[in-house]
Amino acid sequence: ELKVEQNPLFLSMQEGKNYTIYCNYSTTSDRLYWYRQDPGKSLESLFVLLSNGAVKQEGRLMASLDTKARLSTLHITAAVHDLSATYFCAVWDFNKFYFGSGTKLNVKP
Amino acid sequence: DSGVTQTPKHLITATGQRVTLRCSPRSGDLSVYWYQQSLDQGLQFLIQYYNGEERAKGNILERFSAQQFPDLHSELNLSSLELGDSALYFCASRSRGQAPNEQFFGPGTRLTVL
Asked: Contacts of residue A101 in chain B, CB cutoff 8 Å?
């Protein structure tokens, strides 16, 4: 079965620092999605990456996709407390979405 | 607000009971996906419907069933409930716009089985 692995699972960082969340997957899919979830809330779509080399940026978040390495990254620049949430990557393959375990990000003031 | 609606928001019931969760997709979306999110299992895909027909099945238990009606709303039926069924249940609908297969999630139904 397709596997989607995120790391780290937990990330505690100071405001102003940079960090990267990694998402590895085991299929040749070229469709990768990033979502954000606040505690007790629903999932909010952040980025949709549809081809090798795709890069998308929104504010302090930038996502990229390397389909050859089967790797997507979510880079956080100069983190702020408002970015504290759980981030999920998901892969689309044969009519199904496969989600990673999520990375719980805590940005400390 | 994603445009996907789910009812009820919270549901508390006892083991052995049966419940029905309801989902209405965004206007224009034909696909509905159901997910279960629990602390120990993470986000698990359960089942997908497209325009009234089942399209894909994930880790859905035999005690669970779903359907999509002609008006495109969907219901997830959970029966013979067990403590382990306590979870957040999300539905999502899929866009057909510029971002193929992008899903939009509803607010979820929190099910507590006592």
From this structure: 42
